[in-house]
Design brief:
Largest sheet: 7 strands, antiparallel
Structural class: alpha+beta
Number of helices: 17
Oligomer: single chain
Radius of gyration: 29 Å
Helix content: 10-25%
């Protein structure tokens, strides 16, 4: 017992370890003109803060104003026009003081640090009447770290005051991509001056926009750990693995006046690697551990290919039975390589030795006003997993994404293609009459090149340990200037990372050889679905896609009632639709019948959405490894209430784009080539699939089925196989009203592995049959499986027509409003006569739920969850 007692005391001493917490509430703010005092005065405890506003930190000035109801919601209607733009007001209008009182003190060898993970654009910091920073902090994309031990009050009562200045060049929001382009003269978000998918953000994201963190250590500060995993050879998921090599290094800072000796160690998978070190006074040293060979590691795989196993890693510095500091992180063991594909003339992505066909989505930013949260990041990344995508590209006109975003990508298996902060629009690739300065001048934005290099070093260190981070990219559609590009390629990334491919720019020939001409990405806008099968585009297309109008419930959230007017072919849309960047659906709506009202339009838009993105990914997959090594949708999400390029709306409500893309991106997928009706199967997996039953049926508009064929066959790993055409059969049927084609892929147990239903137009290219489709009395039941899961069964009795294109929505049973976010394993589903479908819905929160279902020829009904 005595030994146990002293062991517990020893453990207690070891657990007297670093403390880390956020300053994320209790902030106050005032405009610089209203504060009318210096930082030394404001940060003194006797300075009176009467009438100061509650501030949102992390957050922007605009967020604080919105939360104090001083401006209207800029995401609704034309409200953004009612908010003063910084270009017209001048920078003082959005220059604010932020103040936070907090308790903290240092005793003995304790050290206290403060980190501002993101401030836009310049800032000075004051604590207890003294200035912390010798030089004004500059740059949105860089952390500010300070040792504040000597500034702390002996009473433990402290006041922090921060003055935040907007970007020096906010730019004229004149309607150009990035406005007049001068927003890019500083190291800040270019989209805030407006783009073709967003209106200008009035404060240009000014504020303490990311976390403020207090860390207490003892006499040592551990920072910027670097963990590299090497997984040689070709691996298979769920198998016994050969060893992986773990390489670990970390920066160790000693801010004290005496040398500190101790043991530096890290732990992973029950293994401990230690090193005896001594850090000189007032020095920062990078310490490298001996390599660890980890036996039979659990590997991290991209979504659709295997599990996303993560290992907790603890790094600590021990001295005199004390933990002086420690770092904790999660690491995925994997290796990413790139091998040029001579056939496609594009780069091929390999993970753990296996080639991965890239199915990606372009990402702007989670929220245009930078209202980030772990829950929102998790939901958005999960939607990308639900689309059966395996990569997200972070577009260069926004930010280098936050660690919390990368945590979600690690969790769900989304590789990340990370751009740095350049765009062809602002940085001079094209002639643009809306830009203030010429191409030669814009080519050298931002003005402060050393600041850019410092920021890149800092941000690389921040995210480099994430398994999901796969590729670096110099910029969107343009390289950085040479004196930035060359240090990135030849020094910064080799020195600080060394494990990931760097592409000079997003559509460079080293990524995807442009033999066609033009910009090297696209097309944009709605395409004839057949074109994705027929026309060869860029072999690793970094941007291709278009539409994304949500359903009526989505439109209700941000379009005033008087503006909910259905757009008509070749007519100018309503002003609010235009303001929210509507792309015309034009001739693709009319074949379903001219929209009678906005509800009818929204429903028909979903048919176009689904067909568009299913065809896009099917067309690319059909030429996997022949024409293409991958494609990246432009774009999959919006940080604002725009009416284009989104699989779900700003409020996290999915539309049919998501489920069309989900269907077309299935890892094992059956599909029909619209050019020749060839029934085709694509297998993205690493193993052959044998004893597959391929089945094709056709249904007319009355629900009568015409059996065509079913065959047993197989398909090799990571390949496409063509089975049989049904064109001759279709020609024999009377297609005056159109037909449904049902494809199913079954295993030997007659379990459905993939199914797909196409609706074909009549000979004139219209959908007269759909317009006259008889009602189907769909039976719906809903069963609660857990506090966060509901199973919905849709049954279409025999004798009915096809119950076509049904939307399932989880709603609050009391308010009737949709529960968001909610995750459906399928949606916008069609149920064949005599068949049933089981839909699983997962959601967060303890709410009273019901299910709402409606379809093309199915009456809207609400069903109680049993």
């Amino acid at each position: 017992m005595r030994k146990l007692f002293f062991s517990l005391l020893f453990l207690a001493a070891l657990n007297t370890q670093a403390q880390r917490y956020e300053l994320n509430s209790g902030w106050l703010c005032a405009n610089i003109k209203d504060a009318n005092a210096t930082g030394n005065q404001i940060s003194s405890s006797n300075f009176v803060l009467n009438n100061w506003l509650p501030a949102t930190v992390p957050g922007t000035v605009l967020t604080t104003l919105l939360n104090n109801k001083m401006v209207p919601d800029p995401f609704y209607g034309m409200n953004n026009e009612k908010i003063a733009d910084i270009y017209k007001t001048g920078n003082e209008h959005y220059t604010y003081w932020f103040v936070k009182d907090f308790d903290e003190k240092a005793i003995g060898n304790e050290q206290v640090w403060i980190q501002f993970r993101g401030i836009n654009y310049k800032a000075d910091f004051f604590l207890n009447g003294k200035k912390i920073n010798a030089k004004t902090h500059e740059g949105m994309h860089i952390r500010a770290n300070y040792n504040i031990t000597k500034f702390l009050s002996v009473t433990g009562k402290n006041r922090l005051a921060v003055i935040v200045y907007p970007p020096d060049f906010p730019g004229n929001p004149n309607g150009g991509q990035g406005g007049d382009g001068t927003i890019a003269k500083g190291l800040t978000t270019q989209y805030t001056a407006g783009w073709d998918w967003i209106q200008p953000t009035r404060d240009r994201n000014t504020g303490i926009w990311d976390k403020v963190i207090i860390e207490k250590t003892r006499s040592i500060n551990l920072k910027n750990p670097h963990i590299v995993t090497l997984v040689p050879g070709k691996r298979v998921p769920n198998a016994k693995q050969q060893p992986a090599t773990i390489k670990v290094s970390i920066e160790v800072e000693n801010p004290t006046a005496k040398a500190v000796a101790g043991i530096l160690q890290y732990q992973i998978a029950g293994k401990t690697v230690s090193k005896t070190v001594s850090i000189a006074a007032n020095k920062n040293a990078e310490i490298t551990f001996a390599d660890l060979a980890l036996e039979n590691p659990k590997l991290w795989w991209p979504s659709g290919y295997g599990k996303q196993d993560l290992y907790p890693v603890n790094i600590k510095f021990l001295s005199a039975s004390q933990v002086l500091d420690q770092e904790n992180l999660q690491v995925g063991i994997r290796q990413i390589n790139n091998i040029w594909n001579e056939r496609t003339q594009s780069m091929g992505a390999y993970v753990n030795g296996q080639k991965i066909f890239i199915k990606g989505g372009n990402w702007i930013i989670s929220d245009a006003m930078l209202r980030f949260s772990d829950a929102r990041y998790d939901a958005e990344v999960r939607y990308h997993k639900d689309m059966n995508l395996n990569l997200i590209r972070i577009w260069g006109g926004a930010i280098l994404e936050r660690p919390e975003f990368y945590n979600a990508c690690d969790k769900y298996g989304l590789l990340v293609f990370q751009d740095f902060w350049f765009s062809g629009d602002c940085n001079g690739r094209w002639v643009d009459p809306l830009k203030k300065e010429d191409q030669w001048t814009r080519r050298n934005y931002p003005d402060n090149h050393p600041l850019v290099l410092t920021a890149i070093e800092d941000q690389v260190k921040m995210i480099r340990n994430h398994a999901s981070l796969a590729f670096w990219c110099g910029g969107n559609e343009i390289t950085p200037p040479e004196d930035i590009l060359n240090p990135i390629k030849n020094d910064i990334l080799p020195r600080l990372d060394g494990t990931r491919r760097f592409f000079d720019f997003s559509n460079s020939d080293e990524m995807s050889y442009n033999s066609i001409g033009g910009n090297g990405d696209g097309p944009y806008g709605i395409q004839d679905p057949k074109s994705f099968w027929a026309e060869k585009t860029f072999p690793y297309n970094s941007e291709v896609g278009s539409v994304g109008v949500g359903d009526y419930e989505s439109l209700e959230r941000f379009i005033p009632k008087e503006n909910r007017v259905a757009p008509q072919f070749k007519s100018k849309p309503d002003s609010v639709w235009d303001y929210h960047k509507y792309i015309g659906y034009d001739q693709y709506i009319n074949p379903y019948g001219k929209a009678k009202d906005v509800k009818d339009f929204a429903m028909k838009a979903q048919l176009v959405n689904y067909d568009q993105y299913r065809a896009l990914m099917e067309g690319f997959s059909n030429k996997m490894w022949d024409w293409y090594t991958g494609s990246i949708i432009w774009k999959t999400q919006n940080p604002w209430t725009a009416l284009r390029g989104q699989m779900y709306d700003y409020y996290l409500d999915p539309n049919a784009c998501l489920y069309g893309l989900r269907k077309g991106s299935e890892p094992l997928h059956i599909m029909m080539n619209p050019l020749d009706s060839m029934v085709t199967v694509v297998n993205n997996g690493f193993t052959d699939r044998n004893n597959l039953m391929v089945q094709a049926k056709v249904y007319d508009m009355d629900g009568k089925d015409y059996f065509y064929s079913q065959v047993f066959n197989s398909i090799g790993a990571s390949s496409v196989r063509r089975f049989f055409p049904i064109n001759d059969f279709l020609k024999k049927l009377d297609q005056k009203d159109g037909v449904f084609v049902s494809l199913k892929l079954l295993n030997e147990k007659q379990e459905i592995l993939s199914e797909n239903i196409y609706w074909l137009a009549d000979k004139d290219g219209n959908y007269k049959g759909l317009q006259n489709l008889k009602p189907a009395a769909l039976k719906v039941t809903a069963l609660k499986k857990s506090d966060e899961k509901v199973e919905v069964t849709l049954t279409n009795p025999g004798g009915n027509p096809v119950a076509f294109f049904n939307r399932v929505a989880l709603i609050n049973s009391q308010t009737g409003k949709r529960i968001l976010p909610a995750f459906y394993d399928d949606n916008y589903v069609s149920i064949l006569p005599g068949e049933s479908r089981l839909i699983t819905v997962e959601y967060n929160g303890d709410q009273k739920t019901a299910i709402e279902v409606y379809g093309w020829n199915v009456e809207r009904q609400k069903v109680t969850v049993q």
